[in-house]
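[recover] target loaded
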């Protein structure tokens, strides 16, 4: 409704979009028009909102309230920031500090934008979003385009403003049967293309939420609280505002002409990028993390373009995460998603000469703009929250119903409950206003979740089956794992831990292989091997006791004085314990060298056998009460 303080056209500016304090606004800002009305804690189940995955099909044009539209409901955190008005220019800020920082971020970003970035923003504004996401497949991208017959006509950008609007289309010289976006449904990768199109289906539009929230795009707002519209128009007929946000020149004629129908929140392009990314990631989980990174990167170009606020981009990511999960969890799509995954695996292994076990390695070789995982993490994490600041105390996340499906192919060896635990333990903290809406989909950090658990809240048993191939045969968890629980590794597959882990519940290797990829890989508890192989890639510190009843300890010997395995407390070797020594290829120790292997305050027992991967050296053990060294001698 129009503000009682003045006419509709004055509500936006005289509330002081960038300068009004919360105290000054308190007397005139009522509850937001689209505020989510969650039930009281003691309300009956009959009055509780339906889970998003059970109600996502309500996201249609006629439903514009949180009570009728599931997407409007999950974006309800924005109603704590912005009060929707009766028209596009009658809204008012509820959290002016956030919206002020939000617009300032836009202004700084567009002011610092280079010509190359402006052109890039144009390409990703005009190119079909599903096609733009294909580059996240890295070394598999060109193979995908050929197999899916996916094409685009937007390959570059003009130096200035185009004379007319520009839209993507199938080029005249494209091969017969080619299609925009994810490709043709009758192609060699047709099921994957169909899955992408289904995830981006009729219930995935951001338009109902745009109409519900009516938050203006940044270039329609001004920084001067007293003046919104200068009364002038530019060469394209748009009103001229005192706004520091500069739209990329290439996009000036591509803007929407009706402010009422061109809301900023949530960003539709961001929604589309993330929907396509998560569909591709389901079918090609070998590139899961890189696809998430690509979606975040492309979404950022919406701010660079001057077309969207950070809060718009956050909203687009939130709704896409929920919508992708709902579509993938929908029983109606069960056969399609399974067929898409099977088709992608068969196609890529055949074209690359790999197997399910080696495709991941191939998919991370050669030219790849997302090859640096650490750089990807640095790019993704701050863009999950942008200008938002935390308030309030930390609250645990109840993972939204159905969200675990997003990790179904990336962590196929985990149960649904375990995947939910991964999402919970890697989630963003509470206290970010937009992320704390209904079901808190915005707190999910899928980039981090692709690297396994962030904490063992209880004891975790993981079973990897080498015969199942792919991630079930071998996987790596790269997060730093906290928690009071412990880890038991079973199954014939191989699990690698590389994080600086602090879990205290201990580690048990019962079957298969466990690789310690760092000094703190096995946490702060005891370590026990009952069978299988514990492989120490470099050095390993056991903060508790070490017990090896059977199985094999495999370490690499290098020239130096430090033992590869250091145990803080007692070390006990049983009658079936074996030691496998591998000589470092870069710094191989010479014959006659005596090298430390295991340091401990107390050592009980001996290895039943010691092997060396050398045809001309053997190891002579030297046991003491405080550890083990070996002397390498000629055979």
């Amino acid at each position: 409704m129009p503000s009682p303080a003045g006419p509709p056209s004055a509500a936006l500016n005289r509330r002081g979009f960038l300068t009004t304090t919360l105290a000054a606004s308190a007397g005139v800002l009522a509850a937001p028009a689209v505020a989510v009305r969650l039930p009281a804690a003691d309300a009956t189940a009959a009055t509780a909102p339906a889970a998003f995955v059970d109600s996502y099909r309500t996201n249609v044009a006629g439903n514009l309230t949180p009570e009728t539209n599931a997407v409007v409901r999950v974006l309800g955190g924005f109603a704590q920031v912005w009060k929707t008005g009766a028209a596009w220019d009658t809204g008012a800020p509820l959290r002016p500090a956030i919206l002020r920082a939000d617009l300032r971020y836009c202004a700084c970003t567009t002011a610092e934008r280079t010509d190359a970035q402006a052109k890039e923003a144009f390409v990703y504004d005009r190119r079909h979003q599903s096609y733009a996401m294909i580059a996240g497949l890295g070394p598999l991208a060109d193979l995908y385009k050929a197999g899916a017959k996916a094409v685009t006509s937007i390959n570059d950008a003009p130096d200035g403003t185009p004379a007319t609007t520009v839209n993507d289309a199938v080029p005249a010289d494209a091969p017969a049967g080619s299609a925009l976006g994810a490709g043709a449904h009758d192609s060699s990768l047709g099921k994957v293309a169909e899955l992408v199109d289904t995830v981006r289906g009729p219930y995935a539009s951001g338009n109902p939420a745009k109409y519900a929230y009516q938050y203006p795009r940044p270039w329609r707002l001004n920084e001067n609280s007293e003046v919104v519209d200068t009364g002038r128009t530019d060469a394209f007929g748009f009103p001229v505002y005192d706004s520091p946000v500069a739209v990329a020149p290439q996009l000036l004629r591509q803007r929407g002409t009706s402010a009422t129908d061109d809301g900023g929140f949530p960003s539709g392009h961001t929604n589309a990028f993330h929907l396509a990314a998560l569909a591709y990631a389901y079918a090609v989980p070998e590139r899961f993390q890189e696809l998430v990174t690509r979606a975040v990167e492309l979404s950022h170009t919406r701010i660079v373009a001057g077309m969207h606020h950070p809060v718009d981009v956050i909203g687009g990511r939130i709704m896409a995460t929920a919508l992708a999960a709902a579509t993938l969890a929908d029983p109606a799509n069960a056969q399609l998603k399974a067929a898409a995954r099977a088709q992608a695996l068969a196609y890529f292994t055949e074209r690359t000469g790999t197997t399910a076990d080696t495709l991941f390695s191939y998919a991370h070789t050669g030219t790849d703009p997302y090859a640096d995982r650490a750089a990807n993490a640095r790019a993704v994490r701050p863009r999950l929250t942008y200008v938002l600041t935390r308030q309030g105390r930390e609250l645990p996340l109840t993972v939204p119903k159905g969200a675990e499906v997003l990790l179904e192919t990336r962590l196929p060896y985990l149960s649904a409950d375990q995947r939910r635990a991964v999402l919970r333990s890697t989630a963003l903290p509470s206290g970010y206003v937009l992320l704390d809406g209904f079901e808190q989909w915005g707190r999910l950090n899928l980039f981090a979740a692709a690297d396994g658990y962030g904490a063992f809240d209880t004891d975790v048993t993981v079973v990897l089956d080498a015969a199942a191939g792919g991630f079930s045969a071998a996987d790596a968890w790269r997060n730093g794992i906290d928690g009071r629980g412990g880890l038991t590794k079973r199954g014939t597959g191989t699990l690698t831990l590389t994080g600086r882990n602090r879990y205290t519940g201990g580690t048990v290797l019962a079957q298969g292989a466990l690789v310690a990829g760092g000094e703190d890989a096995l946490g702060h508890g005891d370590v026990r091997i009952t069978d299988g192989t514990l492989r120490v890639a470099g050095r390993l510190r056991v903060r508790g006791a070490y017990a090896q009843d059977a199985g094999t300890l495999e370490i690499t010997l290098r020239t130096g004085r430090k033992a590869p395995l250091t145990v803080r407390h007692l070390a006990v070797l049983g009658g079936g314990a074996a030691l496998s020594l591998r000589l470092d290829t870069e710094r191989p120790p010479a014959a006659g060298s005596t090298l430390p292997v295991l340091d401990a305050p107390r050592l009980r027992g001996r290895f039943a056998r010691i092997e060396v991967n050398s045809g001309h050296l053997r190891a002579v053990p030297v046991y003491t009460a405080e550890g083990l060294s070996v002397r390498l001698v000629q055979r």
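[recover] notes: The longest helix spans residues 310-329.
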